[in-house]
Amino acid sequence: MKPFLNTLLEGLTYKDLAGRRRLRSYTVTALLILFLLLMVGALACTQRQRVLDPIEADPLPVALTEESPAPTQEFQAEDAPAICPSDPAEWSLVDVFSDSRYKSIQPACVYEGLERTVAWTLAVRSGYSRMEAAQLLGFPELPMARLEQARIPSDPDGFQEVAVSFIPPHPDFAEWRLTASGEAAITLALRGCYRTSDVVGGQRVEWGGGYPVICLVVEDAENAYAIYALDGHVFTMNAAPMRSLLLFGYAGNGPWVWLGTQESPRVEISDPASNARERQTVAELYGSGSWDTGWLEARFGLTEKPLPVDWQSYTNESEGQIILTLLNENLEETDR
Fold it and tell me: What mean pLDDT comes out for the span 271-275?
């Protein structure tokens, strides 16, 4: 063993002229490389320990332990949907046209109640009797009121009295309005709303007949025929396409009622396509859209009632007179 150690020592060292042993140059290089490798290894171990220390210091998540059940995830409760205000004092009536006193209602959810009454108005023009349409749309009674006069804004800051007509209130009376091709002819669209009270001399003056807000709705009846049916009697007559103005009053707590149709102005429709574009544009400006039988079906699931068989043949004026007599009798009974 000793000769081997002597040989290894001679390979790694040498004696200088003074007889002292010194490391050979390649031995120094090898030792330097070995030192650097040891330093790199020690540094790597230190970094690994720094990474592992936080993991080992914290307890394992509860969900990963076999002894504890998985935690229940907590959710933030979503905000409850806002309730549409039923008090018109909480509504904002905002300008659409600067020179008009007819406004748009905010929030727009207020229109949902108006739309249900508009749906009834369309349904009774599409073959449903007055009472049938009311029941299908959830009204406890006919959503209409009989007015002879109404006070409406007159630009720029006045008012005017207008005569109002109303449809026959007989609960079993049904009618259809048809185009020349036999399709549904009625389309309605919003024309703005207004409050029926004002402050005069420091006091509030009300003039709406108990309806704090009234909305104006245009009715485009592009009809060529009107069919009337009551108690087994049917009568078909020719009709001219006409634009009319309908009034709807807010009855409080959500519902609206149809107050009737202004007797004037009534304008004959000569250009249906242009008329439809104008109707839709203005309705959208007031935050709504056109209301027709397609909307009635999509929104409330009501389709037009089947037409009487051979409806074109019911032109006997005596049948029309019988229907008119029955309507008048019902009106007289209602007024008693």
Answer: 93
**pLDDT for 286:** 92
**Res. 35 pLDDT band, cuts 50 70 90:** low
Tokens of 290: 């056109």
Provide the whole-model pTM.
Answer: 0.74
Q: How many CB atoms lie within 10 A of CB 5?
A: 9
Q: Could you tell me how many residues make up the chain?
A: 336
What pairing do the DSSP bridges indicate for beta strands 213-221 and 225-230?
unpaired
Handedness of CA 311, 317, 318, 321 (dihedral sign): positive
Closest-CA residue to 224 (of 176, 166, 292): 176
Which is nearest to 299 in space by CA: 108, 130, 137, 84?
Answer: 137
**Distance set, CA 66 to CA 18, 54, 69, 83, 243 (Å):** 74, 22, 7, 47, 77
DSSP 87-137: -GGG-EEE-SSTT-S-BEEESGGGHHHHHHHHHHHHHTTBT--HHHHHHHT
For Cα atoms 223, 166, 127, give the angle at the middle one, nearest 5 degrees.
Answer: 45
* Per-residue confidence (pLDDT) for residue 65, from 0 to 100: 39
Distance CA 13, CA 21 (A): 6
Q: Confirm if 169 and 146 have CB atoms less than 8 A apart.
A: yes
How far apart CA 315 and CA 28 sit, in angstroms, is 126
- The residue behind tokens 């993991």 is 55
The two three-digit tokens of residue 262, written as one number: 């202004």
Q: Is residue 33 within 8 Å of 39, Cβ to Cβ? A: no
Q: Which two tokens stand for residue 194?
A: 């207004």
Mean pLDDT of 27-42: 56
Q: Which of 235, 222, 262, 246 is nearest to 173 (CA)?
A: 235
